[in-house]
Design goal:
- The protein is of the alpha+beta class.
- The protein has one domain (62-262): Carbonic Anhydrase II.
- Helix content is 19%, strand content 34%.
- The protein is built from five helices and 15 strands.
- The chain has helices at residues 4-28, 51-54, 60-63, 169-176, 234-243; strands at residues 71-72, 76-78, 83-86, 90-96, 101-104, 112-115, 118-128, 134-135, 138-139, 142-149, 155-164, 185-193, 205-211, 219-232, 260-262.
- Strands 2, 3, 4, 5, 6, 7, 10, 11, 12, 13, 14 and 15 form a twelve-stranded mixed β-sheet that branches. Strands 1-8-9 form a three-stranded mixed β-sheet, with no helix packed on it.
- A hairpin with a 5-residue loop joins strand 10 and strand 11.
- It is globular, with a radius of gyration of 20 Å.
Length: 263
């Protein structure tokens, strides 16, 4: 017969496991809502210049000293570790979150990057029009941000600049399944999404310490902006711009930071 002690022990383990799963799920969930904070936007009284005043949770948007995005100019050229990409197909999980179009990745999806021996798991990628980052004061048509997290809670964002040119086959797939209505998602196990098709063959990059480019503007994020852009067709860029004509945060002060450029 099972003792009361053994039953309690099993229940304790089960509760701990459920709590752990809930915690992980919450960490991976897009942070579009922040308690009692009012909705933020890219224009008007709740636009970027006012984010830091909307509520205490968004204070870093105003007071932070390592904010993103940056105008990348005169970077220091250095021997930096290569980025190792390990991307593979996952099911379509595309959401129109009211600020961008975002492909989410389930926990344990196996899509990773590694930098200097440290591995980061893919959480999601999304788009901005025009590009948030600028190179020598030049903005590109768009940028894709690939958000990753390590097991110890460090975040790394790969930025891929986008210019007008040939159509991109991954974007063709995404836009064919685009949830046009804000707050809606498009999911399908029959549709594969392989993020490697948005990564250029050349992986040299600019690196700097920054922040989330949306509220709450949390700092401590390492950005790797690839210096080789990808191409989308004029029509593909226009389709995104029809939904989000301007969802780019303005450039932020450098505040003494160093931007490095890998050789």
């Amino acid at each position: 017969m099972t003792s009361l002690y053994e039953v309690r022990k099993v229940l304790t383990v089960l509760i701990a496991a459920v709590f752990s799963l809930v915690t992980v799920a919450a960490a991976l969930e897009p942070a579009d809502e922040h308690g009692s904070c009012p909705a933020w936007s890219y224009s008007g009284t709740n636009g970027p210049e006012h984010w830091g005043d909307l509520c205490a949770e968004f204070a870093a948007c105003k007071s932070g000293k390592e904010q993103a995005p940056l105008n990348i100019t005169n970077p220091e050229v250095k021997h930096l570790p290569a980025i190792q990409f390990a991307y593979h197909p996952v099911p379509l999980d595309l959401v129109n979150n009211g600020h961008s179009i975002q492909q989410n990745f389930a926990p344990g999806n196996g899509n990773t990057i590694a930098v200097d021996g440290k591995q980061y798991d893919m959480l999601q990628f999304h788009f901005h029009h025009p590009s948030e980052e600028a190179i020598d004061s030049k903005h590109y048509d768009m940028v894709a941000h690939f958000v990753h997290a390590s097991k110890d809670g460090q975040y790394a964002v790969i930025g891929v600049l986008i210019k007008e040119g040939k159509p991109n086959r991954l974007i063709t797939t995404l836009w064919e399944n685009l949830p046009a209505e804000k707050g809606k998602a498009s999911k399908s196990n029959a549709v594969e999404v392989n993020a490697i098709h948005l990564i250029p063959a050349k992986h040299s990059y600019y690196m700097y310490k920054g922040s989330l480019t949306t509220p709450p503007c949390t700092e401590g994020i390492t950005f790797y902006i690839l210096d080789t852009p990808m191409e989308l067709s004029k029509e593909q860029i226009a389709k995104f711009a029809a939904l989000y004509p301007d969802n780019a945060r303005p450039l932020q002060p450098l505040n003494g930071r160093t931007v490095e450029h890998s050789k």
